[in-house]
Amino acid sequence: MTKPAVARRHLPSSPFKPPVTRPPKQFAVGDRVTHDEYGLGRVICIEEGIAVLVDFGSLEARIMSPYAKLAKL
């Protein structure tokens, strides 16, 4: 079974709670981060809402939003 292209809307009469929407992750230049594939790094550039550029030591990677594998330390 595949996922629908559009999320289902929550009806006010539903006995279930509406799905929780998490705020987007926010990063600042200089933040220490960890990535599932690349390891530890530091944010060196931000493209607001689009991507962040992270220096992982041996590699600089552009991580696209929604930053699923990236976490702030």
Shape: elongated
- Total number of helical segments? 0
In round numbers, the mean pLDDT is 89
Instruction: Report strand order across the widest sheet.
Output: 4-3-2-1-5
Q: Kindly, what is the distance between the CA atoms of the first and last residues, rounded to a whole number of angstroms?
A: 36 Å
Q: What fraction strand? A: 35-45%
- Reading the helices and strands in chain order gives EEEEE
Helix content: under 10%
Rg value = 17 Å
Number of strands: 5
Helix-strand category: mainly beta
What is the makeup of the main sheet? 5 strands, antiparallel
**Contiguous uncertain segments of 5+ residues:** none
Provide the descriptors you would attach to this structure in a database record.
5-stranded antiparallel beta sheet; 36% strand; mainly beta; 73 residues; 5 strands; elongated
Question: Would you give an account of this structure?
Answer:
This protein has 73 residues and is mostly beta strands. It has a domain at 32-67. 0% of the residues lie in helices and 36% in strands. It is built from no helices and five strands. It has strands at 32-35, 39-47, 51-55, 60-64, 70-72. It has a five-stranded antiparallel β-sheet, with no helix packed on it. A hairpin with a 4-residue loop joins strand 3 and strand 4. It is elongated, with a radius of gyration of 17 Å. It starts with 31 loop residues before the first strand and ends with a strand. 8% of the residues are buried. The mean pLDDT is 89.
